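Input.
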Amino acid sequence: MIEPGARIPDLPLALSSGKTARWADYAGHWLVLYFYPRDNTPGCTTEGLEFNALLARFRRRKAVVLGVSRDSLAAHRAFRARQGFAFDLVSDGDEALCRAFDVIHEKVLYGKRHLGVVRSTFLIAPDGTLAQAWRNVKVAGHAQAVLDAIPSR
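Output.
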C-alpha cells in the first residue's frame, strides 16, 4: 500500500482519449486519481459528475482529474461521452494500478462475497509523491473535499 509521502510507482495509464500516459506527464501538477467500481452505475456516475462539475476549479489549482476502474477503454469512452466528462478515465484491466494502490478488497453484495474495487481517491503532489488518501469514500461532497485539500495558488 502506498503511504502519504511515498513516491508513486511509474505505471502506464491507458486513457480513454486513446493515449497512454505516465506519471512524469503530470509533473508539476496535482493529480487526483479516483478509483471507482464500475462504469454506468449510479454511485460511479454521480461521483464522476461531481468531479466534472468542479473541473474548472481543479484546473485553476493546476490539478488533473483521472477516474480509474477495471472497465475496458471502449466502455470508458462510451461512459465518458454519455456523461459529458471533460476528463480522462483510465482502464486498469490488468488491475496493476488497483493493486499498487491497494483498492481491491473483498466486498459483499446481496449476500455474496467477491473481490471488488473499494471507492478510493488519491491526491498526488506535483513532485510525484502521495499527498493524501481517502478510502471507503462516500460520494456526496467528496469531490469538493478533494478540491479543498489542494492548496490554492
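The longest strand covers residues 63-69.
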